Amino acid sequence: MLLPAVIITIIFRYVPIGGLSVAFMDYQTVFGFFDQEWVGWDNFTYIFNLPGFYNVLWNTFFIAVMKILGNLIVPVAFALLLNEVRHKRYKQSVQTLLYLPHFLSWVALAGVLVDILSPSSGILNNVLGFFGVKPIFFLGNPDIFPYTLVITDVWKEFGWGTIIYLAAITTIDPTQYEAAIIDGAGRWKQTMHVTLPALAPVIILLTVLGIGNVLQAGFDQVYNLYSPQVYSTGDIIDTLVYRIGIVDVQFGPAAAVGFFKSVVSFILIVTGYRLAHRLTGYRVF
After folding, report:
1. Distance CA 198, CA 191 (A)
2. What would the pLDDT profile of 204-221 be if each residue is shown by its tens digit?
3. Quick one: how far is CA 147 from the chain centroid?
4. Do 158 and 97 touch, CB atoms closer than 8 A?
5. Rounded to whole angstroms, how far apart are CA atoms 175 and 23?
6. SS3 call for 53
7. What is the Cα–Cα distance from 176 to 32, expressed in whole angstroms?
8. pLDDT per position as a tens digit, 269-282
9. What is the pTM of this model?
């Protein structure tokens, strides 16, 4: 039963690893793969000397970390709030509405967000204008754009994350709440002294495992929402690779950037798993 999945994984995950050798080539499409000129570390030297490369690296790190924090805090908060709802049908309806955006692609959502956030005709700016606030160019202002990315990503994904924490809450022994009630604890103290401590291992585990995604700022979202006027704060490693490799047809430097990202991500993932094992006892093998 596992054989098809193993074959697909090998074909699409392990066989392409051989393509990393392009990072050490002056790759030209007119020649065969084995006829390329090897240039050693020249492609890496080129990308590290690119104007703005370290700014792109910082943008990626900043946006990714903000997303990790947002997708931690908001789902936990909503899971705690939904846990207090006693009307079962209402609770299920709200939960369904919350995680529905998770299933929508960024291609579709980007078109919706462009209309909603438009400085001239967007619904949000019209509402803000009603209160005397001047139009805000959410997708065109470099100072605001990174936060727009974070907020829209959290809005899209927090409902899905809420499910994980709600599932963890259902495993808490009800007798702990009964003991807290006997001791005079209200709903707030029950949450602080029973629910949150029980959720702590799950929160720590997901946070630590998220370390491996520090350089994954979300290509689909950024590519569909950014523009040249916000490159200074919105350009990330994946979009840089796209422009270098696909637009400028410089496959060697693009592969070098991807190789650099893979090495850093590998180190962070290994570190994350080690921390997860130390802090929560979580192990893959």
Report:
1. 10
2. 878 877 777 777 778 889
3. 13
4. no
5. 59
6. helix
7. 67
8. 888 778 777 776 66
9. 0.84
